[in-house]
């Protein structure tokens, strides 16, 4: 690398840029005032209830490949959604245009839709008594004064570190840097007004090793609310290289039943299947293998999942859900027993239950660990399959039948023996959940579902006959 280019790269990695004047609070106030005007217009047209969501998002995304810039994208998006209720008839309309005539037309369209819809007994705002009243600082706002030149240098440094790690890294799928800010206001005719602002930044790299049929691809990325919490570009590049090289010359395995260890970054997919099965929409449509399972044990007796919506610097922290309902710390699973479902007010009414403050999804789940780090889990399983990648969508949400393509590593004598691919792992999610033997302490911090690696005692692995 030429000296002047190296100097420029070092400045990009080490300099702390001055953050421009932060006007986010003033912008939130403008969105809140706009929300109130729209609510007043809906009321003037006869709406018995109304709610408004306003958002502004800005971002910068840069990608490079083989040492050259591929894309630079700067985004600035705005959205305004109006929902009105005439009794239990609902209408919604949206716009991104702040001109008065457009706002007027949006409210009118929502009202017109509501007048022509059928009554829905479950329609309406969440109960007024459930609205959030406390709004703690959750430390989720960390703007990054990232300009295009600096973003390009970070991406180039990340890719270069990976490509230079080993001569077998002969190609690249590129490296990327993304930085985004989001402002949002939710207001409704109960008098609730909630403001939120958050940031998220990401740096990642994907590499290719080998040639022809022997090519293997893998990568790594880091994501955080603050750019100061991102892994360094050279570290990400080297991890991407190590993961790619480890996959070279894979084999299959003999078909049979074996212990299966899901690495932390794929283990959260198992929790995702649980969430899909206990979500209100699946339940009231009767499209879940966990119908009527609240209060029943579906995991081992030591297994816990807790929701932590007020976690400081959590990726999905919030004081209120998408309907303004106050969020609270609670168990989804405790002592292996499913404690509740995941409900907003609409699905709760359809089921004859109460909202759990999860309109819009869950907020920072933490799966309890009962084992040590990743290496200790490997030693404990002695022999079996480590899964690091899943492919396909072979999960039946109604029956729980599970069958997915997989790749990873074969484990012998508590250590990785060789990479494997071209295999399928199968079972039923009820059996998989009940068969969890260990959850590691190696939590992957890149998701709002915090779990370590998960060891299943036995699954069917289809490979060579």
Automatic annotation (TrEMBL):
GO MF term (any one): metallopeptidase activity
Domain Metalloprotease TldD/E C-terminal as annotated: residue spans: 255-463
Family annotation (Pfam families): PmbA_TldD_1st, PmbA_TldD_2nd, PmbA_TldD_3rd
Metalloprotease TldD/E N-terminal domain location: 50-114
InterPro entries for the chain: Metalloprtase-TldD/E_C (IPR045569), Metalloprtase-TldD/E_cen_dom (IPR045570), Metalloprtase-TldD/E_N (IPR002510), PmbA (IPR047657), TldD/PmbA_N (IPR035068), TldD/PmbA_sf (IPR036059)
Record keywords, A-Z: Hydrolase, Metalloprotease, Protease
EC number: 3.4.24.-
SUPFAM superfamilies referenced in this protein's UniProt entry, alphabetically: Putative modulator of DNA gyrase, PmbA/TldD
Superkingdom to which the source organism belongs: Bacteria
Residue ranges constituting the Metalloprotease TldD/E central domain according to the UniProt record: 142-247
Family: Belongs to the peptidase U62 family.
UniProt protein name: Metalloprotease PmbA
Organism field: Pseudoxanthomonas putridarboris
